[in-house]
Give the backbone structure.
Amino acid sequence: MLIGIEQFTELDIIRAWFSLLFVLFSIIIGLRILIKYRAFKRKELITVGLTWIFLSSPWWPLPLTFILAFVFNSGLDPLVYRYLMSAFIPFVLICWIYSINAIVYSGKKRNLLYAYLITCIGYSAVYHALFFINPDWISVYSGGFQFNYTLFVYFIFIFTLLSAFITGFIFALESVRSQNITVRWKGRFFFLALLIFISGALMDTFSFGSIIIQTIARIVLTISSLFYYLGFFLPKKLEELLAKKDST
């Protein structure tokens, strides 16, 4: 698919840049969490890291297309573009539920994990069948660099966001109740990241093709990744400052 950089409007470029920032932050944070596995040997660190990396996957296509257009005067194949927009969501969901089960419930909620596993495998099987039979059953081209999801994909997005909010709230609540000041603040930052991310994701998902709304949504998502980072990696100086605030 030949795409020149001249085909990007100013808003497209801004949207692509903030998408790229969000994706890069997400990958860096995810990789840092994955690296922690080497030190702690806890499997849930792998799934937490993979969750945040692939959570950004719906926003991969636009910055990739922008980079390819800028460097090679080309772009992603439309089928690849559409596939990346929604294919990994079930994987993200099962990784996150596994992580919550391990961190919050010490692996005891196996029925919950199995229920989500069956749901995600079932959805993924139907998704791939529909995609290879007729991609328009997954998303429909609406001009420019826009593809609108069908109701089938909207379902998994809403289901994933609801699941993330409920389980993320439980996870944050456990952290906020901790006797450790640092853990409490990490829980607060994580919950803020969750709220901001869900707001941005909903704004982006239901933008109905509005590039302005999508641009704002990408900025919101980028902010959420910064709070998510603080939820797992609190800088020492900030940790000391927050500890003093809690002690006064």
